[in-house]
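Appendix C: a fully annotated inverse folding record. The material below is reproduced so that readers can follow the format used throughout the book. The structure is listed first as tokens, followed by the designed sequence.
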């Protein structure tokens, strides 16, 4: 290994977050991008973009007094520092010309090509929602949603927009206090989270500090004062620690360089005023950063430091072995120096340091002659930064349109920007989730189809149910089944993420729509067959043939027989209207009495002209007063009463009309029901409490845990007086925590 050079004492490196000097020129931008863009055609395109912007903005001044062209120059300087490509820099110069001059997107396309025109068009659409178009100080949440969606289409749009906002924040003093506050709030809500998730720390940190400066000026000044007061002692102590560490690393012939940094003002503010720390309790106000050549060097240096200084327990983090979702890698440890001062040490390679400072911009920086393809770059970003793909999908969700935009912003913040639980797939892919997320959230984050077919999971080698809460470091494998019934209402109480809730609701809505449609068809079919049966037509096939005629469909504007049945189910048209159109005459029926016998007054069900006929209630579907019923003629056993939708009598010609005896006193009738719920303690006690409150007797109660979903199914026979009482009971059961379905059972 070559002999290491002893590093010179070096404080904070110059980065793009350093405030710009006054009057930067095009040549300053050129000096930056010329170091990595050598193609003369590309250089000429950028220069022409600058000249076009200078012409269109000529004579226009910003509120701060400088010529407007200085703004795109500063934006492009920031972009060039991130080593963006020629099209991105050109679009940076042109990002305001369509909005602020007579130039059109088509003009841009003709002069600079489709790629630059696309970027300028995207930026223009975002710009047209800017704050000055509002009468109120705050952006509406729906505008923020559209901004996120506009930026998500191409990461280069995000980079330009972040640079644009950074320079605007640097020159905010020229605006009114109300505008300063509004723009600062929007910066924290919209642009800082994006910069954070893309790992562009230099922009994120400066945006946070500048926002705080205008939102909490007194607290901002107080933190500056505290930092200044401790600067002398801090520098003396810091120099001693750095020298001792450098000497030891040097002795072991490890090539490295060393920097020190002061924690950002905004980070200190959050610790002091959000987490109630005293300034002296913040361990990582000072950090020493050691940049070396390889991962092995990183771990070697860590061992040397821990041999010299006592590490603070619980403060070591290995982001090299487990990178953050924004690709950040580094070793973090906190040590106690001999004088009692506490320092955070960060150890990383040069490549890691570049990504740590500029995030996605460093990973995908422009490489000349490498067949650069922006679409492939975007695809690569979506594959490597899976949260970015979720961000695009999330921003495209129609569920959060319009009045739900505030819910969208809250959900986006929870699901995407504040996700800090990192869970592994069996293949080692990291999935980030918000705190409290469950196995089911993890399944939906993998893919919607995985979520819908999930029946359980294996976490760290153990089989667990879908409602298991995950923690950082868990390895989770989702178990799926083709026979899974899919999402149910109970899943909404299991998941934490808005994305999973949205997909579950969508599934249930579609399922309910299909069930409703099927129910209406069945309802219409029952209604029309009953109406025909009353006229002597007992053959269902004959009835279907009659109403399937094209003339019938045309008359009632139905596209198909099913459409007609749905319409009949909704009683538009009524069954009698169809029969009248077909001019159906009543067939000759056996002569019977037209009244109900008084001898049947104690029977719950009355049959026309059947006073001496034995009547019994079917055990298969357990009809109760209030249900639509029909009689089934059983040879030698009289009439068995069924619910009209009972599958055991479907299509039979041995049915006759019956009705409930309205004069009968209150009686109780057995009904078999099943209750589906998420398993929890005291579930049965809560169910029985509902039965007791309704005064219902319960028999044959059984409860079991399903192996597929690890949920509880409670089966029982209850005695009720009417369908209305049963409906009320089901409503109360669904109000119990964890209960998501109640069903009547047909045997």
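Designed amino acids, in order:
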């Amino acid at each position: 290994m070559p002999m290491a050079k002893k590093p010179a004492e070096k404080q904070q490196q110059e980065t793009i977050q350093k405030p710009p000097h006054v009057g930067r020129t095009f040549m300053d931008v050129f000096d930056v991008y010329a170091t990595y863009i050598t193609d003369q055609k590309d250089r000429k395109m950028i220069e022409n973009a600058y000249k076009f912007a200078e012409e269109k903005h000529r004579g226009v001044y910003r509120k701060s007094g400088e010529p407007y062209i200085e703004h795109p120059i500063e934006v492009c300087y920031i972009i060039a520092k991130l080593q963006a490509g020629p099209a991105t820099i050109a679009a940076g110069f042109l990002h305001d010309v369509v909005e602020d001059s007579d130039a059109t997107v088509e003009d841009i396309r003709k002069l600079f090509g489709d790629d630059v025109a696309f970027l300028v068009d995207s930026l223009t659409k975002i710009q047209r929602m800017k704050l000055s178009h509002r009468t109120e100080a705050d952006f509406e949440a729906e505008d923020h949603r559209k901004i996120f969606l506009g930026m998500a289409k191409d990461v280069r749009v995000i980079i330009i927009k972040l640079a644009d906002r950074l320079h605007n924040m640097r020159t905010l003093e020229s605006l009114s206090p109300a505008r300063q506050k509004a723009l600062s709030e929007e910066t924290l809500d919209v642009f800082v989270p994006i910069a954070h998730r893309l790992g562009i720390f230099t922009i994120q940190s400066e945006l946070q500090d500048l926002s705080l400066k205008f939102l909490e000026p007194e607290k901002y000044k107080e933190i500056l004062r505290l930092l200044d007061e401790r600067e002398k002692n801090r520098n003396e102590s810091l120099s001693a620690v750095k020298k001792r560490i450098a000497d030891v690393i040097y002795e072991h012939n490890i090539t490295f360089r060393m920097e020190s940094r002061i924690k950002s003002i905004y980070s200190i503010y959050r610790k002091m005023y959000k987490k109630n720390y005293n300034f002296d309790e913040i361990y990582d106000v000072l950090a020493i950063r050691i940049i070396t050549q390889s991962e092995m060097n990183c771990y070697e240096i860590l061992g040397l430091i821990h041999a010299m200084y006592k590490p603070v327990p619980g403060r070591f983090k290995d982001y090299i072995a487990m990178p953050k979702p924004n690709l950040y890698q580094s070793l973090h440890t906190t040590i106690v120096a001999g004088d009692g001062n506490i320092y955070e040490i960060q150890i990383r390679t040069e490549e890691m340091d570049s990504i740590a400072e500029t995030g996605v911009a460093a990973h995908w920086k422009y490489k000349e002659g490498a067949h650069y393809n922006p679409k492939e770059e975007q695809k690569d970003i979506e594959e490597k930064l899976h949260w970015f793909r979720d961000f695009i999908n999330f921003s495209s969700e129609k569920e959060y349109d319009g009045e739900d935009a505030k819910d969208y912003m809250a959900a986006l913040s929870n699901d995407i920007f504040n996700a800090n639980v990192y869970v592994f797939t069996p293949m080692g892919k990291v999935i980030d989730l918000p705190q409290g997320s469950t196995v089911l959230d993890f399944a939906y984050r993998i893919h919607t189809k995985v979520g819908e077919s999930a029946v359980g999971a294996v976490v760290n080698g153990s089989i667990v149910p879908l409602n298991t809460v995950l923690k950082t470091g868990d390895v989770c494998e989702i178990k799926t089944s083709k026979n899974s019934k899919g999402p149910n209402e109970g899943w909404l109480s299991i998941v934490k993420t808005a994305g999973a809730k949205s997909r579950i609701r969508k599934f249930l809505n579609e399922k309910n729509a299909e069930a409703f449609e099927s129910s209406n068809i069945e309802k219409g079919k029952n209604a029309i067959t009953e109406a025909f049966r009353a006229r002597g037509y007992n053959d269902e096939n004959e009835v279907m043939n009659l109403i399937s005629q094209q003339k019938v469909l045309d008359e009632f504007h139905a596209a198909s027989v099913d459409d007609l049945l749905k319409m009949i189910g909704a009683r538009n048209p009524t069954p009698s209207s169809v029969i009248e159109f077909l001019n159906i005459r009543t067939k000759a029926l056996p002569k019977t009495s037209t009244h109900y016998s008084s001898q049947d007054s104690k029977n719950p069900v009355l049959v026309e002209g059947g006073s001496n006929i034995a009547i019994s209630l079917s055990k298969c579907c357990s009809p109760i007063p209030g249900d639509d019923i029909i009689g089934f003629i059983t040879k030698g056993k009289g009439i068995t009463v069924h619910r009209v939708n009972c599958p055991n009598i479907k299509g039979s010609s041995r049915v006759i009309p019956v009705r409930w005896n309205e004069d009968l006193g209150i009686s109780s009738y057995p009904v078999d029901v099943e209750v589906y719920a998420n398993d929890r303690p005291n579930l049965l006690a809560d169910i029985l409490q509902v039965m007791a409150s309704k005064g219902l007797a319960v028999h044959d109660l059984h409860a079991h845990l399903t192996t597929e979903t690890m949920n509880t199914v409670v089966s029982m026979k209850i005695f009720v007086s009417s369908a209305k009482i049963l409906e009320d009971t089901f409503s109360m059961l669904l109000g119990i925590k964890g209960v998501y379905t109640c069903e009547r059972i047909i045997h």
